Amino acid sequence: MSLTDNAWETLFERHNILQEIESNGFFEIDARQIRAVREPRLMAKFDHYSNLPTLFKQHNLSILPLSRSSYIIGQFEVYERVNYNQKLRPIQVDFPQDISTIDPTNLYSETSALHCAHITGMIEDVLGEQAFQTISGRMSSREFDFRIRTANGNERKINIRNSQVEIDGGYESPSQFMIVEAKNETVDDFLIRQLYYPYRLWREKTHKEVKPVFFTYSNDIFSFFIYEFTDPMRYNSLRLIEQRDYIIAHEDIQLEDVLHVLDTTQIVGEPQIPFPQADSFTRVVDLLGLLVENDLTAEQITRNYNFDVRQTGYYTTAGMYLGLIERYNVPPSRLAHFRLTNAGREIMRKTTKGKFLSLASRILSHEPFRQVMIEYLQVGAPPERDRVVQIMRSCNLYNINSDSTYRRRASTISGWINWILELPETY
């Protein structure tokens, strides 16, 4: 269990939280009570469902801030699923040649990605009008109340009293004000509060239409999810209007480029590292991007990004298998940290085409991936799982001993090969 899990176990027992929720439908807790076991900022901010403590998941609970020093816990539906439209081809935009303070090949923070989106005209394209960035950062929510859906399908009224609000970007045009919540990774969901609280604040402060937008920058693609709240008084009235994807103009990746990588990549010996169990290579690229900015511990990855504990282990191991991530210990606690290797850092500095073809080469330098790719191309369809397992068994993989493990790892091979073959369609 994580430090956060242990701390919440203590608080639940100390304050009879489950019993209070069963009796009253909710439990209010203040920052002083939380601070008695751990810093509140580490205990009450869970941007994704995967970040929730174990006790919260077990009992279908979530937590929302009521003010700067108090929170409410209950069976509230606080997250919105994000479903990426994989058929949406990104719109190419040009990067201004006279801009020298933003590097479009190094956008590994939400702020830099948003600045790039603004100067390349993406923001104005979404709004359909000329726009200026006018706000960002922390501010007070003022007072308002709303109704939120609970796990049993009912609603509960909640009153907010000057809670802290943080906006990643606010962009004003002649008739609209766009509030943006940004993440520099592909996500499964997001916390509606991050759009709803700012929406309620600014709806009272401007006569213009307030447009809530969730934004991700992942694998060089800028994705805008444009929403509306159909009933401003209801937290769960969020409705997706449109998704728009953009990419900085680049040299296209052709199937011939992928075939050239397959023909020219040299096979390497299998490392003494567990074979990957990380089906989404997009998430591997996200993790590499996170490590461009900072070295991170496993807990930091799990707490701050859309990874649960197991996924953090799976995806860091996948990066180590490819020689792109390394693990090291920091004295005196000997706490494990993860960082990019020199090869990983060199690849992540490349332009879009060079980066993704280099990553494809890293994958195809391993015999099981190469063989599956060749069979896929020869037959024109992905090999069946039994055939993938048969190929894996012939490749002397490290420390795989059971048929069930082979079959689980086989889905990683299929997922990564699909990622390679989809490069020409996406980029």
Structure report:
GO terms for molecular function: translation elongation factor activity. The protein has 17 helices and 17 strands. With 427 residues, it is an alpha+beta fold. It has 3 domains: 3-75; 91-248, 3-Layer(aba) Sandwich (Trna Endonuclease, Chain: A, domain 1), CATH 3.40.1350; 255-426, Arc Repressor Mutant, subunit A, CATH 1.10.10. The strands form 5 sheets. It has a 7-stranded mixed β-sheet, sandwiched between helices. The radius of gyration is 23 Å and the shape is globular. The two termini are 40 Å apart.
Task: Please sum up the structure shown.
By secondary structure, the chain is α+β, with helices and mostly antiparallel strands. The chain is built from 17 helices and 17 strands. Strand 2 (62-65) and strand 3 form a beta hairpin.
CATH topology of the largest domain: Arc Repressor Mutant, subunit A
**How much helix, percentage-wise, in residues?**
25-40%
Biggest sheet strand order reads 5-14-13-12-10-9-6
Number of E-state strands: 17
Q: How many domains make up the coordinates? A: 3
**How would you describe the shape?**
globular
Biggest beta sheet attributes: 7 strands, mixed
Helices, by number, come to: 17
| CATH C-level name of the largest domain | Mainly Alpha
Question: Per DSSP, what share of the residues sits in E-state strands of 2 or more residues?
Answer: 25-35%
Structural class: alpha+beta
Oligomer: single chain
Known CATH architecture of the largest domain = Orthogonal Bundle
pLDDT below 50 for ≥5 consecutive residues: which ranges?
none
Can you give the mean pLDDT?
A: 95
Distance separating the two termini: 40 Å
The Cα radius of gyration reads 23 Å
